[in-house]
Amino acid sequence: MTTTAFITHRDCWLHDMGSFHPECADRLAAINDRLIAAGLDLYLSFYDAPLATAEQILRVHPESYLDELNASVPEHGIRHLDPDTAMCPGTMKAALRSAGAGVLATDLVLKREIENAFCAVRPPGHHAERAKAMGFCFLNNVAIAARHALEAHGLERVAIVDFDVHHGNGTEDVFRDDPRVMMASIFQHPFYPYSGADCTAPHMVNVPVPAGTRGDAFRQIVSDRWLPALREHKPQMIFISAGFDAHYEDDMGSVGLVESDYVWVTQQIKALAEECGHRNIVSILEGGYALSSLARSVVAHIKALADL
Ligand SMILES: [Zn+2]
Questions:
Q1: How far is it, in rounded angstroms, from Cα 234 to Cα 253?
Q2: Reported pTM
Q3: Active-site residue among 9, 61, 127, 166?
Q4: Residue 172, number of CB atoms within 10 A of its CB
Q5: pLDDT tens for residues 150-161?
Q6: If we measure between CA atoms, which residue out of 213, 205, 174 comes closest to residue 61?
Q7: Deepest of 81, 123, 136, 280, by most Cβ within 10 A of its Cβ?
Q8: Tell me: the pLDDT tens digits for 259-276?
Q9: Beta bridge partners of 116
């Protein structure tokens, strides 16, 4: 049986963008509850996320940006960086744990201590550009993990697959000029953040889909567009920007995926890794705001990662 790690930290609950904000700590509570209800906690290895170090973060974000983020943390209450994205006193602790989770997952997988990992963390990361917080994101967790694999472990090629309903503009911003990292995504378009349809670099396989897209069309695109490009790239490790806001029940977007689609795409990614001669997969939570469908989808995704 596969050993799958579940990496999180209680500090990720500290980040609060105000009452009724959809990106809230209840998301992690819902995932925990569903994990236990499914009996999955017996089969996973649990780890506390460490704080990401400055060295790890500066592989993606400039120092001036990190300084600016630290200086923006309010002593009390909430400070908005944009209409969607706000900081509270606990935000940087949560953000450093979220980035640290991906780094730890990468270390554990590459040291063969576990086979793969899911990081249940917030704030999410894929909208965070090199020097811009936006879309509920501050540090680009998946980008920091991918650069860690390249720079600290000496990998030469990795991939990031992103099935969040929104385009991962931050991830594209970081890796647009770094062909060691293939990004493969599907995202609703035109839709926030209104990017992703214009980059023609061969290592950026970002596929826009219209509102109303369902699982059969999603699977066709994965089969026709992602997998051939990824096979050619031969990534030595695959990161997943695992957003679950493309679920049918999630009002944040208008794409109609269901749990079986998340299981299917996870199995495709696992099979691709094996074709590339390894099982190195690190999955990091991005969006997903309808609490029930988020938690059910995460459990389905983890079961597929763990072959349960
Ligand atoms: Zn999203």
A1: 31
A2: 0.98
A3: 127
A4: 23
A5: 999 999 999 999
A6: 174
A7: 123
A8: 999 999 999 999 999 999
A9: 4, 281
